[in-house]
Amino acid sequence: MPRVKPFYAVKCNNTEPVVKTIAALGAGFDCCNISDIEQILKLGVETDRIIYGHPVKDPDDIKSASEFGINLMVFDNEHELVKIKSINPTTSLVLRILPFERGSGDVIDEKYGCLADRCEDLLVKAKKMDLNVVGVSFQIGRSGFDVVSHLDTIIFCRRVFDLAKTIGFNFNFLDIGGGFPGYSTEGNPTFADGAKRINKTLDEYFPTEENVVVIAEPGTYYVQSAFTYVLRVIGKRVSNDVYDYYLNDGVHGAFSKTVTYDKKVPDFHLLEDKPLVPFHKSNVWGSTLNPDDRLAQNIQLPELDIGDWLYVPNMGAYTTVLATSFCGTPPSNIIWMASDSTTSQVGF
Questions:
Q1: Which end of the chain is more exposed for a tag (fewer CB within 10 A), N or C?
Q2: pLDDT tens per residue across span 85-143
């Protein structure tokens, strides 16, 4: 998407080599808290490459971000405007709206985002408060790549731009959020196919001569396929021809989103093949005492032994950042691999 400037979603994976590499590539950053902002600024990233993308911010964090020179913040309600007005009334503001789902007109999220029929009232209030609203943002960020939702919401953003002009604003900023896949899967639209349709819609509704700055907030797209997770079998039990295996990580570690939120079975592979070993009905468990710490149920696996290693590819997005220390779960030991040219360019 040649018109779209990437602002990496730090919340997706904030490990130092990841953000350092993305910074070296010249991308911007979508930060959702003051910790994210501090981490990125320490890398020498300029403040104009940072958007404070959380619609509801702690007043202390607004103050700190303003002191750091962050001058682009998101809002979705009147109370947020009051906070910002009292702390940093000159900052540039972006109205976050609720996106639409598959052309139905139904919203797909309830926690953040201004409803379509509330945009006018909120913009009028911002104008009366003499605040500087410069554009619109939305966030689709679902597990699947919902291209139609992106297109429908971009079209609605055009309506918000035109509405804002009648109120006295001159919008020049559009943030189309994230939700882009990190790798291709059978039966789902590829990023390349979706990008073509998004580019066409942007050109039609936000022609280049309007000079609108367009950004996106990719997270999964950048890092999902960059990480492979390796686990060890630490326990085994056999009962009634069902094999239970216990691994050294689970839903309280890197598999929180995969299992609990996405309701998916991790894509387990054996690190070393066992071609002559029979397959059995198997359950795979995490290491904690939580009875719901189960990664897979009634799947077919070759018989494993304690000490065997498994791996799961495409584990870079919303994995290590969601891990807890519950029941003594240790943090993941991350091993980085990169070419000599890459490490020298990035400065590792």
A1: C
A2: 999 999 999 999 998 765 444 445 678 999 999 999 999 999 999 999 999 999 986 65
DSSP category for residue 50: E
Question: What are the backbone dihedrals phi and psi of residue 64, each rounded to the nearest 5 degrees, phi first?
Answer: -65, -45
Closest among 338, 190, 308, 326 to 255, alpha carbons compared: 326
Please, how many CA atoms are within 13 Å of residue 292, restricted to the half-sphere of its CB?
Answer: 6
Counting every residue written for the chain, the total comes to: 348
Four-point Cα dihedral 13, 59, 213, 6, nearest 10:
0
The predicted model scores a pTM of 0.92
Query: 152 and 138 in contact (C-beta within 8 Å)?
Result: no
The CATH class, in words, for 227-328 is mainly beta
Cα separation, 306 vs 166, whole angstroms = 68
SS3 93: strand
Which SS3 state, helix, strand or coil, does residue 173 take? Answer: strand
Amino acid, res. 284:
V
Cite the residue boundaries of each domain of the chain with CATH code 2.40.37.10: 227-328
Q: Specify the CATH number for 4-224; select among 3.20.20.10, 2.160.20.80, 3.90.470.20, 3.90.550.10.
A: 3.20.20.10
- CA nearest 233: which of 292, 304, 174, 281? 304
Identity at 279, one-letter amino acid code: F
- pLDDT per residue over 297-347, tens digit each? 999 999 999 999 999 999 999 999 999 999 988 888 898 888 887 777 777
Residue type, 61: D
- 91 DSSP assignment: S
- DSSP-based three-state secondary structure for 264: coil
Residue 93, Cβ density class (10 Å: 0-12 exposed, 13-18 middle, ≥19 buried): buried
Residue 210: alpha-carbon gap to chain centroid: 29
